[in-house]
User: Fold these one by one.
Assistant:
Number 1:
Amino acid sequence: MSPQQSSDAESAWDARSAELAGRVTKALRTLLEDKHLYQRVEVDFGDLAESPPPVARERLAELFVENCKNAIRGPWDLADNTGHYRKVGLDQHGLRPQVPDVKLFCERCNRLEAFNSLAAEDMLGRDRQNPKYEVDEQTVQVFALSFLCQSCKSVPEVILVRRDGARLTCSGRAPMEHTPVPDAIPKPVNRYYRDAVIAYQCGQTLPGLFMLRTVIEQWVRSQRHSEERASDAIEAYRRSLPEDFRNWYPCLRKEYEDLSADIHAAIGSAELFRDAIRRIDLHFNARNLFTQANPDAFAPRPTSPSPHPAPPSGS
Ligand SMILES: [Zn+2]
């Protein structure tokens, strides 16, 4: 091999290595910006490991492919925004992906802000006696990544990312991820609403459904419907709503019944969660619109007895 060929192959490797690392950076950005606690993404390396560049032929091509596979399989050394790498003694072909700067919600600024990557540490790689962990031939690493809001530059947020092979999971956050609650959701129940969304986002749909049902129950109770059975109180609430409202908008009884049926059968339907929360949002948005048009729209008024017996209790 001539010196020229050798240097061509070297720069081809550098380019490929940067491309592989770029795929990790891209997956990290998706994980950090779009996914919630315990959700995951898979790094898409495509066929990068299988396609040697034209400058690498025969034996060199084989070597190139092997280096790509080893780089993907072996420990990675994430670099923070200073370009600082922590791991010493990493194989010369080891991947060194850059941690991306990301857009996160800043609790202090109360809006989405640019956060810069400050530090990246491989928590399992700190053990010098045993710097490499594998399960089922998949490298396991746990990275602690810190980010600083570029607007308030307050206290960095730390996100834990676990790597199993090519899979990255958001495994922890300090502080807890911000979960917005729509303005229309009334104060007495907005913490139940937030807990419902957090549970759902963490994949705990059944507890999420339970908390959504709590939103309905506690809202109705806060409206002074004190019937012993929750289903009776919810029916009394429904009957207290203006007729126009009842004709057009969800009145929470059906939502309550659907949630109860799922909870009692311990199903935990994500589809039901999305549908129920949409209808609950619609109920409260409509209440606000009605109140804007007529401040007394929901003033207590005498209710006529129900023409039908209350439906069987869901709880
Ligand atoms: Zn901020």
Note: Residues 106, 108-109, 113, 149, 151-152, 154 surround zinc ion (CB under 6 Å).
Number 2:
Amino acid sequence: MSELKCAQKDCSNEAQYIDAGSSYCQDHFQKREQQQGQLSVRWVYLAGLFLWIAIWLWILGWIGPQSLAQKILPAYAGNQGLLAIPVGMGFVVLLINLCLWWAPKGYAGYETEVKVIEFVERNAGWFLIASGAFLTAASFFLTRPPGALLTPPLLAREGLVAVLAFEAASLFCLLFVVSLYWTPPNPKSLARLRHLKTVPFTYAVSFFAAAFSALVAAALS
Ligand SMILES: [Zn+2]
């Protein structure tokens, strides 16, 4: 009867756990189990952070065309510091997640992961309703035709453009969160999915904060 060696290269131990579909020794079997039970998602948050920075460099006109910056920045005349709130918020949230998940970590079982992703989607759903209501209210109350009863107009045109543009960006990002993605029904795929959804959700919340900052800036000017 031939002796079975551990499948790990350069390991001279006798193989065990053949019945578990593996031919590793005890040490290497446990090591592999541990590795397979971990999730490496740092690249999700790294990519999310770089994209967030790129989006703002583009909005502020530091890269690419100036047209957007020319429409949005006048709303912040004298109060440009307010823009740091939404930009910093998205940056900090993604950075915290990146630090938390820098080292690969384990994920929960199937039922817990299903509950967690349901929680994410329920929050996104409520946020979609609230944000939609805000957009409706903003476009209804803030876009008065010239000469309408409310004088002076509630918001100068620049402020209005910034509020509606950021609000639209927020809703657009939210659509990626509430969309359906049919991953294989295992806890690892579900855990990956919730990390992938965290990035657009963070963008959506931060753009919502940007819409608010534009409203405040318009009120202050
Ligand atoms: Zn071994």
Note: DSSP finds seven helices and two strands in the chain.
Number 3:
Amino acid sequence: MKAIMGGRADELIDLARTNLWQLVMEAAGMEDSVWVPALDESQLHEDTIHVVFPKGVSIILIKRDGRVYAIRNRCAHMSCTLAGGRLDGYTLQCPCHDWKYDITSGEFLEAREITVPTYRCKSEAGKVLVELEEP
Ligand code: FES
């Protein structure tokens, strides 16, 4: 098989090794990410938009029904900041042209294949931490 495919076989084997390694690291909870403190828990109020900048990334934190959601502070349409938008339940409406996003998934409600990045959050020692990928 390798003789037939030549260099392409080596590329495929390397790709398979890389993917397998990533799966093993993810299963072990060791993917290339880092938890970054973003805000004191005491400053996080229900149904309020909080803009934070962990590692310089502009992110909105929203606490709703006791759970914290983190969504990138940049609209997928023309990059307006979403922080000036209107929050209605789990929906965040962009202030520029009214695109609406589900804060739980980052999905644009009228075309769910269009998304704004979301981030996992956790609380630790009185801080809200956001999971960011390592550069
Ligand atoms: S920039 Fe957000 S809807 Fe246009």
Note: The first strand starts at residue 33 and ends at 40.
